[in-house]
Design brief:
homodimer; alpha+beta; DNA-binding; Arc Repressor Mutant, subunit A; elongated
DNA sequence: TGGAACTACATCGAAGGCCGAGGTAGTGAT
DNA sequence: ATCACTACCTCGGCCTTCGATGTAGTTCCA
């Protein structure tokens, strides 16, 4: 809506960043974790997730390392950078302001 | 994200519907009201608002009547239909589930 | 041996939302 | 006259999202 800069992805980047805040994870695991924490309500699709991770990497919010595992395919493990941690608090605050604002409109109240 | 059908506009339609729930209003007034209720945080742009209103009208969620006023340009006044009221509760519930789900991910908790 | 089911990565294209910019037009104040 | 505000509207383009599709390894079962 209002003041979002054109580069930012609405909430998906927040979700990914939030999951990574608790420790490194690879793409598939991130999606599963989001799914688990929301009881299946939010399901991040692969066509969304991987381009998003690449974008976060270009923005230096996450860093990735390839890790070859004996069980299963090779995994790309992501972890938050310092910049990513800052971005997480920033976007968390933005999200809270935004959701309170929507609630205010829905409830018919003035001020958020 | 997950299960949204492709026709739905994320939150903007909810905002407009919510404002109209308290009585008929014309486009410009709706935008102002959203702006007011969120202390300027959410600003619905005209390039968003008018196409959205037309879309809501096509979906029969709102109905519009032209009203010529002596002061200023003619106004198109919108009001909720019965279907629109149902859509409003539906979307309000969806929004609440969604925002609780995002909160759950951000907080690192399981279940919404 | 075959194959279903799952992990895990990835890209592409179509569809659609959003908004800046631009346009029209009336009103009222400087 | 010009600015500012109300009030409507459309167009073009950027961006996000996701369904479809592809690759490839693993595990389990018949």
């Amino acid at each position: 809506m209002g003041s979002q800069s054109r580069e930012a992805r609405p909430q998906n980047d927040l979700l990914v960043l939030a999951v990574l805040a608790e420790g490194p994870a690879h793409g598939y695991a991130i999606a599963q974790e989001i799914n688990r924490r929301t009881d299946g309500l939010l399901r991040m699709k692969e066509g969304t997730l991987y381009p998003l991770l690449h974008s976060l990497e270009r923005q230096r919010l996450v860093r990735a390392t390839w890790r070859e595992s004996e069980r299963g395919p090779a995994r790309r493990t992501y972890h938050l950078t310092a910049k990513g941690k800052r971005a997480l608090s920033d976007r968390t605050a933005k999200w809270q302001r935004f959701s309170r604002a929507v609630d205010a409109v829905v409830r018919g109240e003035a001020r958020a």
